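Side project, low priority. Logging it here so it doesn't get lost.
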Amino acid sequence: MVAGSRSELRRIDQAQNAHNKRSLIFIIFTTITLVFSLLTFMNPSFMKKQLSKESNAVVAEQFINERFDNFAETIGADRNGDTSNILTEKQTKPIANAMVDYTLGVHWFRAENANLAEDIRQVILKKIDSNSSQEAQSVKNHLKKYTDRGIYSVITGFDLSSVTLSANIETLFVVVNIIIIIMCLLSSVSVIRSMKHLLGKKEFIHTIMAAIMWVGSLFIVIYGLLAAVPLIFNVEGLILGIGYFLEIASGIFLELVIIGVILFVISAILWQLTTEN
């Protein structure tokens, strides 16, 4: 009878430990992912540095030229339908940076985008000169004729309503991320206490390292696939500029893969050292 009770308790403890391990994997993976996203994808300084990289600058230039071509059509400027060479990188970069500053960072929900439109308007008036393309100069000349309507034409032509929507989605993500991170940290305290109660010191470290190994594997697989998406599929046509985001984010996803490799290697070594002989 006593032996049966002990066997049942051991089985319950093993089941609880397996549950704790799965919970810890989820908590660590979620926490690292959300903290990393706050420091990268939702950080305007970081993203502007990413856009300065040669490969990403090409993507940003293509995105802004596409919006600029729509703007040219809106105000009736001369255009040839080719969006690839209207603006140079020197001209698209300040527009892209203005959009990044507006969309990302610490701010509350956006209700207007007139200030962003004015920033873009000033870039067009100041950065386009006699060395610019004929289409760009035509846009500048037409824009000079507008007064107050120039702002609204920029809002319409550059589809700044979608940029405002993206900014509000980013604010929601920041709030939700912080709440989830706090919940994960609180949950981790409970899970670790339960594991310490059930396991000895060596077993505890061994189980923690096993969980981190799983986290590293998930990072390698999941973010490796996400980094490969723009290479496998044509993502440019996705709504709200998601395709352009995926192209720029692919390099950042690779950094998460590297983090996963580091986590896996270090935890695998410690896991092996704490394995019962």
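Brief comment: The two ends are 31 Å apart (CA to CA).
Revisit when time allows.
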